[in-house]
Specification:
The complex is a heterodimer of chains A (113) and B (110). With 113 residues, chain A is mainly β. Chain A is 0% helix and 56% strand. In chain A, the strands form two sheets. In chain A, strands 2, 4, 5, 6, 9, 10 and 11 form a seven-stranded mixed beta sheet that branches. A four-stranded antiparallel beta sheet of chain A has the order 1-3-8-7, with no helix packed on it. The chains are: A mainly beta (113), B mainly beta (110). Chains A and B meet through strand 5 and strand 10 of A and strand 4, strand 5, strand 9 and strand 10 of B.
């Protein structure tokens, strides 16, 4: 009965590899997000999708590509991983956009070696 | 760019004491939200206060908002060890992304 789930929870990989993180929400929300939290706990929005359409795309390298096959899923694909990509990535969802509370997944800790 | 800035960065108190965290922001907002993050977990929404509200309560939480000073405070009364976590304020303006502050790390010892 998990509301927002992410897989994997931990991801350790070498520089230059391509990896994906999956996110699913069973709350029936129409908006989903990806955030990056750095080692100092600073949380920054990366992308936002509303009903499978991209609505927010912050200044993120184009090595990061979100994909939303349906409104319950928002996956994050990262090409050519770099050391600086090491962080915790959180998926979140909300209903009717940003005015309401956001529900966060447990996070994916990505370590690039 | 970062919008909210929490103060203090870290706070250590004893169980039963009150904890107050402050958040300052830079631009006009529609609402301000507070979230809690336990170590190694995702963020959990605590409370949302709209720009036309001045104070809001939820259980042991009390949030105030002063739009003239562009600041908000979160008060946790009668704190418990389980309140140990990081607390973030987040602001939303005209449908753009939620912008989070750096957070206050609260440690409650028994």
């Amino acid at each position: 009965d998990t509301a927002v789930s992410q897989t994997p929870k931990y991801l350790v990989t070498q520089m230059g590899n391509d990896k994906s993180i999956k996110c699913e929400q069973n709350l029936g929300h129409d908006t989903m997000y990806w955030y990056k939290q750095d080692s100092k706990k600073f949380l920054k929005i990366m992308f936002s999708y509303n009903n499978k359409e991209l609505i927010i795309n912050e200044t993120v390298p184009n090595r990061f590509s979100p994909k939303s096959p349906d409104k319950a899923h928002l996956n994050l694909h990262i090409n050519s991983l770099e050391l600086g990509d090491s962080a915790v990535y959180f998926c979140a969802s909300s209903q009717e956009g940003l005015v309401n509370e956001q529900f966060f997944g447990p996070g994916t800790r990505l370590t690039v070696l | 760019s970062q919008q909210g800035e929490e103060d203090p960065q870290a706070l250590s108190i004893q169980e039963g004491e009150n904890a107050t965290m402050n958040c300052s922001y830079k631009t006009s907002i529609n609402n301000l939200q507070w979230y809690r993050q336990n170590s190694g977990r995702g963020l959990v929404h605590l409370i949302l206060i709209r720009s036309n509200e001045r104070e809001k309560h939820s259980g042991r939480l009390r949030v105030t908002l002063d739009t003239s000073k562009k600041s908000s405070s979160l008060l946790i009364t009668a704190s418990r060890a389980a309140d140990t976590a990081s607390y973030f304020c987040a602001t939303e303006n005209e449908g753009t992304a939620l912008i989070f502050g750096k957070g206050t790390t609260l440690s409650v010892s028994s």
